[in-house]
Specification:
Two copies of one chain form a homodimer. Chain A is mainly α. Chain A is 69% helix and 2% strand. A two-stranded antiparallel sheet of chain A has the order 1-2. The first copy, chain A, is elongated, with a radius of gyration of 22 Å. The structure holds a DNA duplex.
DNA sequence: ATAGTATGATTGTCGGACAATATGGCCATC
DNA sequence: GATGGCCATATTGTCCGACAATCATACTAT
C-alpha cells in the first residue's frame, strides 16, 4: 500500500454551515414543513455573517432540501419530490450525452416489472388512477400534446401503484427525457395513438384482475411497440437526449 | 377549464444568474473542464454585485455543474458523476423513508438485464474490469469491509459493461444505500461470502462467453440469494434506509 | 532545472446599508 | 364574527466597501 497523503479536508464556512443544516434536516431535527429561522438569527446562532448564511441557504435550496412556499418569504424544509430529482438527473444525462436509445432501454427494463408489481400491490385508489389515466388518454388522443402527457401520466400511475417508492423517482427523469421523442412519434404516426390506447386498456385490465404476468407481458409488448414506432418513423435513437 | 391565475413568475437575481450560467453549461457554450471567469468579472458582466454572483455559484456548485479542482481556487465546469448524483438521490430516498426492501426490489429489476446487456456489449476492457472485480472480491473476502466494497465494485463493473450510461447512474444510489445492510449480512453469515464469490465467477464467465441468457439467470439467482441471506439473518427489510 | 521570493489576482469572510415586501396586529365596517 | 383596510415591524434582496488568506505567476538566485 502506498502511503500517499490525502489532502487535508477543509471546507469553507458556507459549506460547513450548509452541512450542519442539512444534517439537522436529514436526522429530522428539522421536520418537513417547518420553517427555518431567519437569516439573521441563523447568522448569530452560527456566529457568522449573514452573507455566509445566505450562500449556505442557496446550496440547500439547490439541493431541494429547503424551498420557499410560493409568494412567501420564509424558507421551509421540504422533501425533494420526483419532479425535482428528475430535473437534476435530466441535466446529468444531457451532460453525459446519453442517447434516446439508452433512456428507452431503461424503460424497457423498468416498466414490465412495474406493471407486474402494480398488479400485485394495487389498491382501489391506485387502480382508479390508472383507469383515469387510460380514460384521459383516450379522450385527449387527438391532440398530440395531450396524448404525450397522457402517456406520461399512465406510466406514472403504474409506477405509483407498484408500491415501490423508488420506482417513481427513477422513472420520472426517463419520462421527462422522452417526451420530445414521443411527441414526434405521436405526431408522425397517427395509428400509433390507437395502438397505445388499446395497450393501455389491456394492461389496465390485467392489473385490475391482479394478473401480474399478463400485465407484465402486455407492458413489455407495449414498450417494444413504442420502439418499433420510433424505428418506423425513422427517429434516430442514437441522438443525445435534449436538455430542454 | 377553470381559469385560476398563475402566480407571476418572478425569480430573485441570484436564481436568474444561476439559470443563465447553467444554460450556458448545458448548451456547451461553457465546456466541461473550462474554468469560469472570476467572481468580479462575472459581477461586472451581469451588472450585479459580487454577493449575488456568489450565491448563484453556490447554487451551481450544489447542482454539481461546477466544482473546484482540489486545492485550487478557480471554479471549473464539471459534469456530475454517478457518485454525486447518487448522493442527491440517497438524500431524497432517506427523506422519503424508502425501505431496504424497496431498494432491493429495484436491484432485482435492474441487475439481471444489466448482466444480459453486459454479455452482449462486452469489450476487452470492460470484461477485464469485471474479472478484476471478481478476483478482488475473492482476495478481500475475509474482511467484511473489503467484501462489501467488492460487491459494489462487481455491480458497478457489470453496469459499466452494459453499454448503457444511464444504468450506472441509476444503480449507484441503490448500491450506496445497501452497503449498510450488506455489511450486516456479510458479517453475520460467513457462508454467504463463498456463495457470492461463486455466483460472481459464474456470471463473469457467462458474460465472457457472451451468453446473455445465462448471465441474466445467474444474476437473478445471485440477487435473489442476497435477499434470502437478508431473511436468514433476520435483517428487517422494512426499515427505512439509512442516510449515512 | 530547482528552490526561493515578490507581486498581483481571487476568494472567503466580514460589516453595514437601504429598498421592497411579507407578517401580524389593530381597527373600522358590514 | 367575518371581512377588509392600514400600519409597524421583521425579513429578504441587493448593494457597497473592506481586508486577510491563499493561489498564480513572473522573476531571481543557487
Amino acid at each position: 500500500m502506498s502511503a500517499a497523503f490525502e489532502p487535508l479536508p477543509f471546507a469553507p464556512g458556507y459549506r460547513r454551515v450548509a452541512g450542519e443544516i442539512a444534517a439537522r434536516i436529514l436526522d429530522r431535527t428539522l421536520k418537513v414543513g417547518e420553517s427555518l429561522p431567519s437569516e439573521l438569527e441563523l447568522a448569530t446562532q452560527f456566529g457568522v455573517n449573514r452573507s455566509m448564511i445566505r450562500e449556505a441557504l442557496r446550496e440547500l435550496e439547490s439541493a431541494d432540501l429547503i424551498a420557499r412556499r410560493r409568494g412567501t418569504k420564509r424558507l421551509v424544509v421540504v422533501r425533494p419530490a420526483a419532479a425535482q430529482i428528475a430535473g437534476r438527473l435530466r441535466q446529468a444525462f444531457a451532460l453525459h450525452d446519453v442517447t434516446v436509445r439508452e433512456v428507452w432501454e431503461m424503460l424497457e427494463v423498468l416498466e414490465p416489472p412495474a406493471a407486474q408489481a402494480a398488479a400485485a400491490a394495487r389498491t382501489a385508489a391506485t387502480l382508479r388512477r390508472i383507469e383515469e389515466a387510460v380514460a384521459a388518454y383516450r379522450a385527449g388522443q387527438r391532440e398530440a400534446r395531450r396524448a404525450v402527457d397522457g402517456v406520461g401520466e399512465f406510466f406514472r400511475a403504474i409506477a405509483g401503484a407498484s408500491g415501490n417508492r423508488v420506482l417513481p423517482l427513477m422513472q420520472e427523469p426517463l419520462l421527462q427525457l422522452l417526451t420530445a421523442a414521443l411527441g414526434v412519434l405521436i405526431e408522425a404516426a397517427p395509428p400509433a395513438r390507437e395502438r397505445i390506447a388499446v395497450a393501455q386498456e389491456r394492461i389496465c385490465a390485467a392489473i385490475g384482475d391482479g394478473n401480474g404476468e399478463l400485465a407484465r407481458d402486455w407492458m413489455a409488448k407495449h414498450v417494444r411497440d413504442f420502439r418499433r414506432g420510433f424505428e418506423f418513423c425513422r427517429i434516430e435513437l442514437n441522438t443525445p437526449v435534449p436538455f430542454g
